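Hi U.,

Before I forget, here's the chain from the pilot set. I'm dumping it here mostly so it's searchable later in email.
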Amino acid sequence: MRTFIILTSFALISITGFGQNKDIDNIFNKFDGKNGVTSVNITKDMMNLVAQMDSSDFKAKDLLAQISRVRILAFENAVPEDKVSFETMVKSLPLKDYKELMVVKEKEMNVKMLSLESQGRIAEFLLLVTGGNHQALVSITGNIDPKQLGKLPEFMKMHGCEQLAKLGKK
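Structure:
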C-alpha cells in the first residue's frame, strides 16, 4: 500500500509539472518554423559545451550548469495574424503559480518577468514581451539560484533581456 501511495504521488507530481509547461509548450509548437518568427532551443548539452569553452569564467560556468533548457520565440516580420494569435495565447497562460518579478511598460511594449520557484530555486523563468512591434517569449528551465538570474543578459542579447540586470541588483 505504501508503495502504491508513493508511486501515485510521483505520478501526480509529474503530471502537475508537465501541466504547468503544457501551455507554454503549445505556444512554442504553434509558432516554431513560421515565417517571421525566430525559434531557438538550447539544450543542457549546449549549455555544458559553452561552459567548457571558457573555463576561466567560473561565474558563467556556475550559471550555465544550473540551466537545463532555454527556448526563445521572437516575432520580427511575422504576419499580423500570428502576432495577434501569440498575444492571445500569452494572455490565456495559467500563470497563477508564477511569481511576478518585474513588469516594464514602455509605450506599446510590455515586458513581464516571472518565475516558478521550487524550494527557493527557480525551476522556470519566463520573459514575456508583448505589444507594438515587439513580441517574444523566453523560457529558461533548470534549478537556478535566484542570485544568478541577473547574469543572464551577458549570455542573451535580446530586446527586453537588459531588464534582467536590474534583478541581480536586488
